[in-house]
C-alpha cells in the first residue's frame, strides 16, 4: 500500500479492498517481507444501518421566520440538491430526527401544537410537527425503505423544574419532575407524536430516545440533571406506554451520549451508570446509545473515551449498542474535554477513517449515525459532511467534505446488512484497534465487512510515510477489485 492513501478491495468471492489515500501492494499468497493480514472467518455484529441526523426548522439549530427567504440553517427536505446527495450518493439507510419540545401545547402535554407557519393570519395554522413529517416523507421519496428514529433532547418545559427546555435556566440546572404522573405525561406526549406521524404516512420509528445526553448542562434544549433511578423509571414508563398504545415494535434507547462522566460515571462498579443499566431492571429490549466526540484531544482523553465504550459494552453485553451521534470534532467547536487544535480536511479524512475502523472492529455497534448532514455556513468545519448555502427548492448541490467522499465510498461497498469481520496482523505497521489513534500517530488501519452477497470488503488506510506490502490470508476467492480514494 502506498503512503498517504486509502484503499478498497473487492473480491468476487470476493473482497473489495479499498484504500483511503493509500496503495498497498497486495498479494493473495505468502510473499517475503510482507505483513500477514488474516481476515476472520467468523462474523461479528451485523450493521443494521448507516445514517445521518436530519434537521427540521423547529429544531434547536433552526430559525422561526417561516423560511420563505431560504435561510433555514439545517432544513433540507425542501432542497432537492442536498436530498439527492444524501440519499443517492451517501447511501444512508436511516435518519435520526429530533422530536423538539415545542411540538406540544403549553398546557396539555399530550396535545400537539399549531403555529402560524407563513405569517399570514388568513391561512390555517399547521401543526409544528409537520416539518418533521415533511422531512420523513421527503426521505421516503428517495428511499421508500428508509428507517428513522427519534431523539428527544428535552421534554416540554412544563415537565421540568425550573420550567425551561434548556439544560440550564439562568445558570440553574433544570430537572425533569420526578413523579410517575409526569413520566407518564412525557411518554404520552411522544405517543401522540408517533400516532400523528403514522397517520400522515410516515410509518413508525425504529426507536425513541427520551434522554439525550443526561447530566450535560447546556444552554439549549437539554435533559438537565437526572439520577439513575429516574432514568430507569422513564425507560420503563416509555416501554409500558408504547406497548399500551400498540407501539410494541418501537424500541427505547437508554440513554444517548458519552457525557456520563459529568454526573454519572460509566464504570462497571456498583456506582456506575452502565452497571445500573442492567441491575436497575431496565426492560430487556432497551438499546444502549452512545455518542463519540473529542478526537484530537490529548492521548489520555482519547484512551478514556475508548475505555468508557469498552466498560459500557462489557457491562451491557446482552443489549444492542447503537452509535447515535458520531463527530470527529476536528475543530474547537465542541471542546468538551479540552481545547483542541483545528485540523485540515485531509487530516480529518485520514484520522476519522482510522477512528471509525477501530470503533467498528472493536465494539459491537450495530447502527452508526453521523452527527449533522449539512450546515449552511460557507466554510468547512470538523463536524460536517456537507456545507455551503443552498437555496430552497433548487437542485444546487452543497460542497462536499473530503470525509464525505470517504464515508460514502465505504457505505457504497459495505452497505447496511453487512457483517463486521475482524482482521489480525503480524506486523507492527498495522495498528492495534484496541487503542485510539493518538495525536500524530502514523500507521495503517484495516477493517473488513462481509456483504450479504458474499463479497468481502476491506477498508485500508495508510497514513504512514512509507509504502507497505501485505499478504491477505483467510480468503478463498478468485478475483479482487481494488479501488482508491486519494
Explain this structure.
Strands 5, 6, 9, 14, 15, 16, 17, 18, 19 and 20 form a 10-stranded mixed beta sheet that branches. The protein has helices spanning 80-89, 130-142, 180-199, 228-244, 273-279, 299-315, 345-362, 402-413; strands at 5-11, 15-21, 24-27, 35-39, 49-53, 94-98, 114-115, 126-127, 147-151, 160-161, 168-169, 172-173, 175-176, 207-209, 251-252, 288-292, 321-326, 365-375, 384-387, 399-400, 419-421, 423-425, 444-450, 456-462, 468-473, 480-485. The chain is globular, with a radius of gyration of 23 Å. Helix 3 packs across helix 4 (228-244), helix 5 packs parallel to helix 6 and helix 7 (345-362) packs parallel to helix 8 (402-413). The protein has 486 residues and is an alpha/beta fold. It contains 8 helices and 26 strands.
Write a concise keyword list for the protein shown above.
486 residues; 24% strand; single chain; alpha/beta; 6-stranded mixed beta sheet
Characterize this entry briefly.
This protein is α/β, with parallel strands linked by helices and 486 residues long. Helix content is 23%, strand content 24%.
Helix count from the secondary structure assignment: 8
- The backbone outline, from C-alpha atoms, is globular
What value does the average pLDDT take?
79
Q: What percent of the residues sit in helical stretches (DSSP H or I)?
A: 10-25%
Q: Characterize the quaternary organization of these chains.
A: single chain
In total, how many beta strands? 26
Summarize the biggest pleated sheet: 10 strands, mixed
Work out the strand percent: 15-25%
Global structural class: alpha/beta
Radius of gyration: 23 Å
Question: Low-confidence segments, ≥5 residues, pLDDT <50?
Answer: 10-15, 17-32, 58-73, 260-264, 332-339
Distance between the termini: 12 Å
Amino acid at each position: 500500500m502506498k503512503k498517504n492513501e486509502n484503499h478498497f478491495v473487492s473480491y468476487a468471492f470476493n473482497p473489495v479492498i479499498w484504500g483511503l489515500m493509500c496503495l498497498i501492494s497486495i498479494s493473495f499468497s505468502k510473499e517475503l517481507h510482507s505483513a500477514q493480514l488474516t481476515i476472520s472467518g467468523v462474523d461479528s455484529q451485523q450493521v443494521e444501518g448507516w445514517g445521518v441526523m436530519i434537521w427540521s426548522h423547529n429544531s434547536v439549530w433552526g430559525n422561526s421566520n417561516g423560511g420563505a427567504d431560504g435561510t433555514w440553517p439545517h432544513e433540507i427536505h425542501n432542497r432537492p440538491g442536498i436530498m439527492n446527495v444524501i440519499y443517492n450518493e451517501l447511501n444512508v439507510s436511516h435518519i435520526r430526527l429530533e422530536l423538539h419540545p415545542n411540538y406540544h401545547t403549553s398546557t396539555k402535554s399530550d396535545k400537539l401544537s399549531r403555529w402560524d407557519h407563513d405569517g399570514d393570519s388568513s391561512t390555517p395554522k399547521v401543526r409544528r410537527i409537520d416539518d418533521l413529517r415533511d422531512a420523513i416523507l421527503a426521505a421516503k421519496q428517495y428511499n421508500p425503505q428508509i428507517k428513522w428514529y427519534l431523539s428527544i433532547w428535552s421534554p416540554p418545559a412544563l415537565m421540568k423544574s425550573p420550567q425551561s427546555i434548556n439544560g440550564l435556566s439562568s445558570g440553574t440546572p433544570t430537572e425533569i419532575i420526578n413523579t410517575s404522573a409526569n413520566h407518564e405525561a412525557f411518554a404520552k406526549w411522544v405517543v401522540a407524536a408517533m400516532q400523528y406521524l403514522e397517520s400522515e404516512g410516515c410509518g413508525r420509528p425504529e426507536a425513541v430516545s427520551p434522554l439525550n445526553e443526561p447530566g450535560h448542562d447546556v444552554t439549549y434544549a437539554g435533559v438537565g440533571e437526572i439520577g439513575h433511578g429516574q432514568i430507569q423509571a422513564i425507560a420503563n414508563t416509555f416501554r409500558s406506554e408504547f406497548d399500551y398504545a400498540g407501539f410494541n415494535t418501537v424500541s427505547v434507547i437508554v440513554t444517548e451520549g458519552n457525557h456520563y462522566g459529568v454526573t454519572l460515571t460509566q464504570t462497571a462498579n456498583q456506582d456506575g451508570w452502565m452497571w445500573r443499566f442492567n441491575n436497575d431492571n431496565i426492560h430487556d429490549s432497551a438499546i444502549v446509545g452512545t455518542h463519540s466526540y473529542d478526537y484530537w484531544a490529548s492521548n489520555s482523553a482519547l484512551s478514556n473515551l475508548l475505555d468508557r465504550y469498552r466498560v459500557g459494552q462489557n457491562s451491557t453485553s446482552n443489549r444492542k449498542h447503537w452509535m447515535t451521534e458520531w463527530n470527529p470534532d476536528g475543530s474547537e467547536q465542541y471542546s468538551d474535554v479540552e481545547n483542541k487544535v483545528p485540523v485540515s480536511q485531509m487530516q480529518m479524512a485520514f484520522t476519522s477513517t482510522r477512528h471509525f475502523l477501530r470503533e467498528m472492529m472493536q465494539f459491537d455497534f450495530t447502527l452508526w449515525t453521523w452527527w449533522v448532514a449539512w450546515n449552511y455556513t460557507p466554510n468547512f468545519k470538523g463536524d460536517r459532511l456537507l456545507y455551503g448555502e443552498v437555496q430552497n427548492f433548487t437542485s444546487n448541490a452543497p460542497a462536499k467534505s473530503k470525509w464525505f467522499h470517504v464515508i460514502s465510498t465505504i457505505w457504497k461497498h459495505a452497505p447496511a446488512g453487512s457483517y463486521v469481520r475482524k482482521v489480525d496482523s503480524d506486523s507492527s505497521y498495522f495498528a492495534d484497534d484496541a487503542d485510539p489513534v493518538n495525536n500524530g500517530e502514523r500507521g495503517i488501519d484495516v477493517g473488513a465487512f462481509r456483504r450479504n452477497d458474499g463479497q468481502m470488503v476491506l477498508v485500508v488506510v495508510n497514513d504512514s510515510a512509507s509504502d507497505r506490502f501485505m499478504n491477505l490470508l483467510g480468503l478463498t476467492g478468485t478475483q479482487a477489485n481494488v479501488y482508491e480514494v486519494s
